[in-house]
Write a structure and sequence with these properties.
Strand content: 15-25%
Structural class: alpha+beta
CATH class: Alpha Beta
CATH topology: Aminoglycoside 3'-phosphotransferase, Chain: A, domain 2
Distance between the termini: 48 Å
Shape: globular
Helix content: 40-55%
Strand order of the largest sheet: 1-2-3-5-4
CATH architecture: Alpha-Beta Complex
Largest sheet: 5 strands, antiparallel
Oligomer: single chain
Number of strands: 11
Length: 261
């Protein structure tokens, strides 16, 4: 897969191997989510744009195994956070063919975490796509598993009904990481924030920034800058994904975010 022999490993968490040229790599098994490895590999390659944030290098991939470079951990620094913010602006400006478009070579049936996510190009307004493809499917699933009560579901449905008024001006589709919570930013020894584990697709640039805010990020104020006006709207999707996957208070949090809009 990589063209190199493994001389040590796998060991550790995440599993690491040493190749015969001394390179240490991370090996991820995606067998439990069919299609997730091709989607992630295509996403990592697509996100690696000149001037953008550093992205874990893909050394090899097949249908179930992904081999990426190891990011040596380090502290988050204000300067690194500023570099991440500038890099994200470059990444988003690199654009996408359409809202919902998958990375080149990536499957339309992708994943976000352990939840399915469809990547189907859409040529209409962002708000209509976001409601239909990123909010309502997960709202229904969260309600079906009992993670969202009827009143909370109704609040989110009301937001979808007026999403054209909430979405702001139309923009060209941005190139999104798609699952940019703080755990998918690895701070390296030099202070840079590296991107891993994407659910990459074409979307609205504020969606990435809103997800960073959802679970917190060191020096977040330096990253977000002027991108925080519609954070709650963009957080509906990841909150509903978590309601589907984990239940708990995520459904209530999604409803609360909707009520603030």
């Amino acid at each position: 897969m990589t063209g190199r022999a493994v001389v040590a490993g796998p060991a550790g968490h995440p599993p690491r191997c040493t190749l015969d040229d001394g390179t240490v790599v991370v090996v991820k098994d995606g067998a439990a989510e069919p299609g997730s490895v091709p989607a992630e590999a295509a996403g990592l390659r697509w996100l690696a744009v000149p001037g953008g944030p550093p992205v874990a290098r893909v050394h090899g991939a097949d249908d179930t195994l992904l081999v990426t470079g190891l990011v040596e951990p380090g502290p988050a620094t204000p300067a690194g956070a500023e570099r991440l913010g500038r890099g994200l602006a470059v990444l988003h400006a690199a654009g996408a063919p359409a809202l919902g478009a998958p990375p080149p070579g990536g499957p339309a049936d992708a994943w976000i975490g352990h939840a399915r996510m469809g990547d189907h190009p859409h040529d209409g307004p962002w708000g209509a796509w976001f409601a239909a493809e990123r909010v309502l499917p997960y709202l229904r699933a969260a309600r079906d598993r009992g993670a969202l009560d009827p009143a909370g579901a109704a609040a989110i449905e009301r937001v979808c009904g007026r999403i054209g008024d909430l979405a702001g001006p139309e923009e060209p589709p941005a190139r999104l990481h798609g699952d940019l919570w703080s755990g998918n930013v690895l701070w390296a020894a030099d202070g840079d924030g590296w991107l891993i584990d994407p659910a990459a697709h074409g979307g609205h640039r504020e969606s990435d920034l809103a997800m960073l805010a959802l679970f917190g990020l060191p020096h977040l104020d330096r990253v977000l800058a002027a991108y925080d006006e519609r954070v709650g709207l963009h957080q509906l999707f990841p909150l509903l994904v978590h309601a589907v996957l984990f239940g708990g208070g995520y459904g209530d949090a999604a409803a609360a975010a909707a009520r603030r809009l």
